C-alpha cells in the first residue's frame, strides 16, 4: 500500500489553473491529503466564485497562508511562490497554459487530454525540449498509475501470445458520484464567467476542432464529429491510453460504429489479435470500466470504479487454467487482487512528486500523449469516411 507518511521531504508549492469540478472534487482533496509533499499556494480561474470556493478548501499548512487567487494564468505561472503548475481547466486552454508554465521553467501536470490536435501537442513537445531547466510535462491519465493496472501490465507481459482483448468504458451520470463524494462542489453560477471569456473559449474550441478534424484527420467537420472528438478526449483518453500501455499501438481500425449520443464501438486490428473498444454514456447509474486480455490459459482483467468517490478500489481479476502434479485434471482458478485502497489520483500525484522533486521521467508524457491523437485520428477516419 502506498504510504503517505515519510521522513521530512521537500514540499512542492502548486498553482492550480482551473477551479471547477475536478479541482474541487479530486485535486484539492488529494493535495490536502498529501500535505507533507504538496501545498497549494496559487489558484487561477476566470470565475471569482470558483476561485474563492477552492481557496476556502485548501489546507493552509503550518504557515497559515491562504492561497493567492487570480484570473491571470500568466501571473500564476510567473510567481516565485509556485514550483509546479496543475492545469485542470477547459481543454481549449491546456496547451496555452502549459506553454506558459514551461516558459517559466515550471513542471506541469496537465489534465487529459493534453491536446486535441497534432499542431498543439507538437507545440507542447517542442516547448518542453526548449525549457531551460528541464521542466517536464506530466499528462493526467491517472488510471495508468493504479496498482492493479501496473500489475496487469506485468501479467500480460508474461503472455506467450495475446488472443483477444476487450476495453470497456461505459459510465452513468457523473453527477451521481460527484453529489455523493462528500466534497460538495460549487457549480458555476450565472454571471460567474463573462461573455468575453465564453466567446474566447468557443472560438478556441472551434479552431482546435477545425484543425484536428478538417486539416489533420481529413474527416467532415460537423456536430457529430465535433462531439465524438470531445468524447474521445474526455472519456476515451483514459481507456485508450491504458490500452496502449498494456498492448501497444494497434495497426489499424477494422470498423467503427460511432453512435453518439449513446454507446459506440470500435474494432482495433493488431498483428495477431483483435481488440474491441466499447464506450459512451448511459442513463443507468453505474460505472462499467474495465480492460480484459485473453491468452490461451489465462484471462487478466482490470476493474476500475468511479474516481469521484475516494477510496473505491481498482482490482485485478485473474482467471486461469491450472495444472498441478497432484491433481489428475487441469482445474479452473479465479483470483481477485486488491493490493491497496490508495486511489489512482493519489498514486498519480505521488508519481508527479517524484518528477518534480527527484527528476523522474513521467511515463504519461506529452510525447506519449501524442499517440492518443493517432488513435483518435484512425477511429474518426473509420467512423466518418469523407
Automatic annotation (TrEMBL):
The UniProt entry, under Pfam families, shows: GFO_IDH_MocA
Show the SUPFAM superfamilies listed in the entry. NAD(P)-binding Rossmann-fold domains
What residues does the Gfo/Idh/MocA-like oxidoreductase N-terminal domain cover? 12-132
Record's InterPro entries? Gfo/Idh/MocA-like_OxRdtase_N, NAD(P)-bd_dom_sf
Q: What is this protein called?
A: Gfo/Idh/MocA-like oxidoreductase N-terminal domain-containing protein
Originating species: Sporothrix stenoceras
List the taxonomic lineage.
Answer: Eukaryota, Fungi, Dikarya, Ascomycota, Pezizomycotina
Amino acid at each position: 500500500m502506498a504510504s503517505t507518511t515519510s521522513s521530512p521531504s521537500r514540499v512542492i508549492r502548486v498553482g492550480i489553473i482551473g477551479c471547477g469540478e475536478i479541482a474541487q472534487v479530486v485535486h484539492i482533496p488529494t493535495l490536502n491529503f498529501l500535505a507533507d509533499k504538496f501545498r497549494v499556494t496559487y489558484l487561477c480561474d476566470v470565475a471569482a466564485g470558483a476561485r474563492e470556493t477552492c481557496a476556502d478548501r485548501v489546507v493552509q499548512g503550518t504557515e497559515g497562508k491562504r492561497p493567492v487567487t487570480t484570473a491571470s494564468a500568466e501571473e500564476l505561472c510567473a510567481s516565485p511562490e509556485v514550483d509546479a503548475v496543475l492545469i485542470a481547466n477547459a481543454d481549449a486552454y491546456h496547451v496555452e497554459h502549459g506553454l506558459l508554465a514551461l516558459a517559466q521553467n515550471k513542471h506541469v501536470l496537465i489534465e487529459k487530454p493534453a491536446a486535441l490536435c497534432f499542431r498543439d501537442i507538437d507545440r507542447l513537445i517542442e516547448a518542453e525540449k526548449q525549457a531551460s531547466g528541464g521542466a517536464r510535462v506530466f499528462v493526467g491519465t491517472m488510471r495508468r498509475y493504479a496498482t492493479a493496472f501496473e500489475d496487469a501490465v506485468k501479467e500480460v507481459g508474461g503472455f506467450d501470445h495475446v488472443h483477444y482483448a476487450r476495453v470497456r468504458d461505459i459510465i452513468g451520470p457523473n453527477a451521481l458520484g460527484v453529489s455523493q463524494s462528500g466534497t460538495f462542489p460549487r457549480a458555476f453560477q450565472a454571471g460567474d464567467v463573462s461573455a468575453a471569456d465564453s466567446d474566447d473559449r468557443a472560438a478556441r474550441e472551434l479552431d482546435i476542432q477545425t484543425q484536428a478534424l478538417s486539416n489533420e484527420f481529413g474527416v467532415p467537420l460537423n456536430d457529430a464529429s465535433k462531439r465524438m472528438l470531445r468524447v474521445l478526449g474526455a472519456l476515451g483518453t483514459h481507456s485508450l491510453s491504458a490500452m496502449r500501455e498494456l498492448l501497444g499501438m494497434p495497426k489499424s481500425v477494422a470498423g467503427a460504429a460511432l453512435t453518439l449520443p449513446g454507446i459506440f464501438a470500435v474494432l482495433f486490428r493488431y498483428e495477431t489479435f483483435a481488440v474491441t473498444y466499447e464506450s459512451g454514456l448511459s442513463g443507468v447509474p453505474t460505472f462499467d470500466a474495465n480492460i480484459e486480455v485473453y491468452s490461451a490459459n489465462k484471462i487478466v482483467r482490470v476493474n476500475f470504479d468511479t474516481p469521484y468517490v475516494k477510496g473505491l478500489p481498482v482490482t485485478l481479476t485473474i482467471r486461469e487454467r491450472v495444472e498441478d502434479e497432484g491433481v489428475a485434471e487441469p482445474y479452473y482458478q479465479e483470483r481477485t487482487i486488491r493490493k491497496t485502497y490508495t486511489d489512482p489520483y493519489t498514486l498519480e500525484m505521488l508519481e508527479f512528486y517524484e518528477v518534480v522533486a527527484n527528476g523522474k521521467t513521467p511515463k504519461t508524457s506529452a510525447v506519449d500523449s501524442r499517440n492518443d491523437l493517432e488513435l483518435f485520428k484512425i477511429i474518426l477516419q473509420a467512423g466518418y469516411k469523407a
